[in-house]
Amino acid sequence: MRIRPPAGRAGRLWLVRRLAVARRGEDVLEQKRRALLHRLDQLEAQLEEARGDWRREATAAETWWQRAAVLSGERPLELARALQRGEAEVRLVWRNTLGVVHPDAADVALPAGELFPAGGSAALAYAAQAHGRALEAAARLGAVQTAHRRAADELRSTTQRLRAIERRWIPEHERALAGLELALDEADREDAARVRWFVARRDS
Q: Which end of the chain has the lower number of beta carbons within 10 A, N or C?
């Protein structure tokens, strides 16, 4: 990046102001980076909990489905699938945290009606309930995974912007300011030397 400040002392003021803005931006980005790190720690704990819930509910659903198949046979299971009307719906509740838009909750609406056709056992009803709980757990897990991924992406982006300011933007402006101040000092010395020379000639 080539910096082109205005000439003279106006350029010095221009560079000083830009450096002040950059340092404020650096502070803000560092605060955001730390907040995002803390947020990711929270989400990782939620993610681990959500994974455990989903595994537990999925295992229970599979167990009840196998029991229903053993107790009722294949025909009641097929009949139960055929009788079921509608589809489950998942609605995500979105939120903005630290500039990251992410799912904050997942609401699951299951189809109305009972999965209990004639000839089926009570295990079939329990299997249906267990699968509903497994779906709710899967929706919660998906919401937390999405929130974690988006927060991690924002952390990477924030860290890149912060490093660009720290390693390029500020050093380049500091070098430009140092060079300009050196040039201004030399100009001041030259002006002072010319004044002394003029006064010496006038008085001689």
A: C
